[in-house]
């Protein structure tokens, strides 16, 4: 992440975390100082230093449908990756290793949409992993295909289910309703894939690349297949 002037005593987690500042742009990242078995405990979210936040910011983690915490520690320097080394498990308020476990020197990362439903500013991901999603936003605006099979917190699963059922309702009752336009940030490959799928089912949708964007097919619409219903009704 971009540099940030810490207002807490550093290092906050000296036994487990090394914060590294590198490059001309002074980007920060975190490395593990410990060995942790798969799904083993790396650190806990403790209050303090954490405290409850009124709303989501760059320095918060979402811990429930409407609840956020301020990290107030070096844990803020754990970057996003599409193949993360850590899971932020907000149900147990623990940070645990991913399925590969952790070794000293491994970069500490987690998958931002696994906790965050809404993100003010989507960003381009350069994690370099084979499964990189390229554009990262809150889970609300991620195409469902890109979240499938990934570890997500319960509040994200619950919100995705609510989104899917509300979308099905909208498709059935408000013909042509575009909803919010978020698709401009979606990876092109996803849009193309979606365009192909929509092509056979929806004669009113302009399926020619950017035309699809301009009409504003939302990620909600595009995630309408979540419940296994592949028919798009207009
Ligand atoms: Zn990535």
UniProtKB/TrEMBL annotation:
Molecular function via GO: methyltransferase activity
UniProt cross-references to Gene3D superfamilies, sorted A to Z: SET domain
Acyltransferase in keyword set: no
An individual GO BP term: methylation
Keywords: Methyltransferase, Transferase
Segments forming domain Post-SET: 121-137
Name of protein: Post-SET domain-containing protein
Organism name: Hypocrea atroviridis (strain ATCC 20476 / IMI 206040) (Trichoderma atroviride)
């Amino acid at each position: 992440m971009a540099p940030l002037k810490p207002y807490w005593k550093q290092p906050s987690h000296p036994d487990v975390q090394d914060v590294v500042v590198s490059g001309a742009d002074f980007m920060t990242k975190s490395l593990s100082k410990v060995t942790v078995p798969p799904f083993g405990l790396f650190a806990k979210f403790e209050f303090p230093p954490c405290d409850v936040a009124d709303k989501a910011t760059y320095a918060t983690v979402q811990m429930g449908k409407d609840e956020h915490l301020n990290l107030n520690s070096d844990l803020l320097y754990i970057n996003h990756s599409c193949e993360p080394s850590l899971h932020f498990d907000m149900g147990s308020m623990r940070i645990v290793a991913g399925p590969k476990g952790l070794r000293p020197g491994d970069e500490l990362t987690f998958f931002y949409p696994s906790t965050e439903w809404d993100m003010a500013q989507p960003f381009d991901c350069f994690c370099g992993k084979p499964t990189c999603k390229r554009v990262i936003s809150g889970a609300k605006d991620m195409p469902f295909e890109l979240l499938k099979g990934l570890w997500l917190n319960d509040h994200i699963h619950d919100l995705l289910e609510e989104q899917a059922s509300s979308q099905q309702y909208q498709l059935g009752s408000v013909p042509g309703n575009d909803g919010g336009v978020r698709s401009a940030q979606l990876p092109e490959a996803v849009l193309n894939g979606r365009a192909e799928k929509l092509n056979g089912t929806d004669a009113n949708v302009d399926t020619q690349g950017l035309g699809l964007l301009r009409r504003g097919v939302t990620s909600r619409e595009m995630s309408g297949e979540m419940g296994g219903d592949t028919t798009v009704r207009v």
